[in-house]
Amino acid sequence: MDPVRTGLEALATDPAVVGDRSWALLANHAAVSADLKHARTLLTEALPGRLIRLLAPEHGIDGIAQDMEAVADDSERTDGIPVCSLYGTDAASLEPRSEHLDDVRVVVVDLPDIGSRHYTFAATMDATMAACEPRRIEVVVLDRPNPIGGVLREGGRVQRGYESFVSRLPVPARHGLTLGELALLLQRERYPGLELSVVACDGWRRSHWWSETGLPWVPPSPNMPTLETATLYPGLCLIEATTLSEGRGTTRPFHLVGAPWIDAQELVNRLRSTATGGAAFRAARFRPAFGKHEGAVCSGVDVHVINRSELRPVELGLRLLQTIHDLDPPSFEWRHEPYEFVSEVPAIDLLTGSSAARTCIESGERLEPLLERWREDVNEFEAGLDGILLYQKL
Asked: What is the distance between the alpha carbons of residues 20 and 37, in angstroms, rounded to a whole number?
């Protein structure tokens, strides 16, 4: 198949949707074309002299900062275009400030996403849309393929009281939408007065994974090195809600899961008899160079994707948590520290959208009833996507 043409390349070829208006770019280092030219380079060539501000999501404009690490504004760029951080030291810093949008008539968004509600880039887009609507600033989203495909969806809806930066979007944990489709959904449900344009991809179908697009993979954040990592992330991200290491500080983030107290072989034996299809498990020992259990030898599991079409990562993540909990309940602990600036709600509840998963794991209940309720949530979500989907399945 021919390589997919992204919304970035389409706008660079025909920039009329922005025209002669002043604009800001919400992007990071991974916003590149098929030949690895950055959005800023391509678009300033197509729209010379009109870019007045850069807006940066979590991890910063260059993708350097680690998870939940505050990023400061950068007003000292050598070319004089300021970089405004949308991930700072408190919850208020996640929203564009008024001065970030001064004199801006269009915000162009090019944020390579990975198809998970937990991943914060789409939440940053949502916050930007909210800020632009009352100021009558148009938002132009340059669409890209969903790396893990646009067919499979998993996870329950976010219940009231459990909203946060990782549960801000009204979508399943694995949502199967592109960033442009998410923007259309948000406009319909939250920002009907917002002027929105989506520059669609050409040549992408919902059944295509990133490896089938012909596009290069640029890690969109420091702990998202490969497509396989992104495939596991919608479920393995749940490990962040515990004191277990999720593999940060190793070369296998969101593959390696463990802690010093775990019996690795017993864990793998149990996973092989209870976990869902599409994954294989290896007993592993590892030592994180940073993050949880920094410098300590952890025992646990290395998760491998063997059939990505069969894999249900959210279910896998829940079964992994339940299995590790049941190995040694007194040693298993949920995260104690604030998570994405929220301290009053457990991180696992924020990630899953309610307290149901945590209660199920703590009480030893079977996961099947919860997973069935979540499948019903997905069915209801899919029934409401008329007019939102931009791409065909086949």
From this structure: 22
- Residue 51: helix, strand or coil by DSSP? strand
Please check the confidence at residue 78 and state whether its pLDDT lies above 80.
Answer: no
State the pTM of this model. Answer: 0.96
For residue 263, the surrounding DSSP H or E stretch is: none
Question: Can you tell me the distance from the alpha carbon of 145 to that of 134, in angstroms, rounded to the nearest whole number?
Answer: 29
Burial track 196-227 (b if 16+ CB lie within 10 A, e otherwise): bbbbbbeebbbebbbeebebebebbbbbbbbb
- pLDDT at 77 > cutoff 70: no
* Beta carbons within 10 angstroms of residue 363's beta carbon: 7
> Percentage of the chain surpassing pLDDT 70?
98
Strands 256-259 and 298-305: antiparallel
pLDDT of residue 274: 83
Model confidence at 123, in pLDDT bands (50, 70, 90)? very high
pLDDT digits (tens, 9 = 90+) for 228-281: 999 999 999 999 999 999 999 999 999 999 999 999 999 999 999 886 799 999
Q: What is the pLDDT of residue 75?
A: 59
Distance (Å, whole) CA 30 – CA 43: 15
How far is residue 42's CA from residue 47's CA, in Å, rounded to a whole number? Answer: 9
CB 176 within 8 A of CB 365: no
290 CB-side CA count, 13 A: 6
Do the strands 279-286 and 298-305 form a parallel or antiparallel pair, or are they unpaired? antiparallel
Q: CA 118, 119, 123: angle at the middle one, nearest 5?
A: 90
Do 301 and 271 form a contact (C-beta atoms < 8 A)? yes
Contacts of 367 (CB under 8 A, 6+ apart): 315, 318, 319, 322, 360
